[in-house]
């Protein structure tokens, strides 16, 4: 038996860090939303009890370091599953980019294996298991738009943001999330107003969303990678309504409503950047 599962990327429309916790993680408040840029996982049943990862992308680990592998292992251990699975990952989301590609693959594996292995778990139970794999996995289990608090694993659903295009540009570098949190100096300057962003989304006010994007991790990554600042400047110059780095970076996203400006920004950035995408937000929960 085979099952296909989609694993969409996320962007952080706003990201605030409150303080460092005794467990080493940081207490965050983030507005996250899934976008129409997705990996595809094909899950195939195997009788020998083994977990196998297959991917053409050389940056994707094919062993227990893979977050989708960890998701399968966690379900096997917790629910005494005897069956095995081969997880073929068709990678579209850039790796180590601040777009939660690995976390979304893990979340898709949890959702898919719940069906393949007939575990009958609820989405909330899967999100709880996801938090054991990584801070962003719980959000990715639900998808859509949400306020994430705690270390990122406590999720409150929000309505869909106003309709617009999201242009993503990823420079040639990759960034380590742990490194960025380690280098963050608190209290951070330029903190976003999370409550205002929630109001902007709830009242479907595009211009207020654009005014309120913000990410306290941005300054850390910009300081060490000037190419990210260059991409931000270019996106602004080409006419994006709002420009922000996603998560720990280095991917920069721009919001725009008009198709003519979308084309200008997209064409202007290609050639300058490793990868450029023009996508839509998925809005509300989108699960298969
Ligand atoms: C920054 C964000 C924003 O959405 O995303 P990415 O840029 O990775 O996509 C997340 O907070 C990343 O979440 P995720 O990538 O799942 O992090 P984890 O695997 O749980 O943790 C990786 C490392 O980041 C640090 N970390 C992570 C989350 C958090 N709230 N505080 C932290 O200090 C810890 O050092 C941890 O060891
Ligand atoms: N399924 C996966 N896809 C991509 N990277 C993965 C995966 N599983 C584990 N990783 C590891 O996680 C690291 C961070 O990857 P990713 O989730 O793409 O980035 P980010 O945390 O910036 O959103 C990668 O360097 C890679 O070694």
From TrEMBL:
Organism field: Neobacillus notoginsengisoli
Name by which UniProt lists this protein: 4-diphosphocytidyl-2-C-methyl-D-erythritol kinase
InterPro entries: GHMP_kinase_C_dom, GHMP_kinase_C_sf, GHMP_kinase_N_dom, IspE, Ribosomal_Su5_D2-typ_SF, Ribsml_uS5_D2-typ_fold_subgr
Pathway(s) where this gene product acts: Isoprenoid biosynthesis; isopentenyl diphosphate biosynthesis via DXP pathway; isopentenyl diphosphate from 1-deoxy-D-xylulose 5-phosphate: step 3/6
Family: Belongs to the GHMP kinase family. IspE subfamily.
GO BP terms in the entry: isopentenyl diphosphate biosynthetic process, methylerythritol 4-phosphate pathway; terpenoid biosynthetic process
Binding-site positions, ATP: 94-104
Gene for this chain: ispE
Catalytic activities: 4-CDP-2-C-methyl-D-erythritol + ATP = 4-CDP-2-C-methyl-D-erythritol 2-phosphate + ADP + H(+)
Taxonomic lineage from the root: Bacteria, Bacillati, Bacillota, Bacilli, Bacillales
């Amino acid at each position: 038996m085979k099952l296909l599962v989609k694993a969409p990327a996320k962007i952080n429309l706003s990201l605030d860090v409150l303080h460092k916790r005794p467990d080493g993680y940081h207490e965050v408040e983030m507005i996250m939303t899934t976008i129409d840029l997705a990996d595809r996982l094909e899950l195939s049943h195997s009788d020998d009890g083994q977990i196998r990862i297959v991917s053409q992308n050389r940056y994707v680990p094919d062993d227990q370091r893979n977050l989708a592998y960890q998701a399968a292992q966690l379900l096997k251990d917790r629910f005494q599953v005897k069956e095995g699975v081969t997880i073929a990952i068709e990678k579209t989301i850039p790796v180590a980019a601040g777009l939660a590609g690995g976390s979304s693959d893990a979340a898709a594996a949890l959702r898919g294996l719940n069906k393949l292995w007939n575990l009958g778990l609820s989405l909330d139970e899967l999100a709880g298991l996801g938090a054991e794999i990584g801070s962003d996995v719980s959000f990715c289990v639900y998808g859509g738009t949400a306020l994430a608090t705690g270390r990122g694993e406590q999720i409150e659903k929000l309505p869909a943001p106003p309709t617009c295009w999201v242009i993503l540009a990823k420079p040639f570098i990759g960034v380590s999330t742990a490194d960025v949190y380690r280098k963050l100096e608190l209290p951070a300057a330029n903190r976003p107003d999370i409550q205002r962003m929630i109001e902007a989304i709830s009242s479907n006010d595009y211009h207020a969303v654009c005014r309120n994007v913000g990410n306290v991790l941005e300054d850390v990554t910009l300081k060490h990678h000037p190419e990210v600042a260059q991409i931000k400047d270019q996106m602004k110059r080409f006419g994006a309504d709002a420009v922000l780095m996603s998560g720990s970076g280095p991917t920069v996203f721009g919001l725009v409503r008009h198709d003519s400006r979308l084309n200008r920004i997209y064409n202007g950035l290609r050639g300058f950047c490793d990868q450029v995408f023009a996508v839509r937000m998925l809005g509300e929960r989108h699960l298969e």
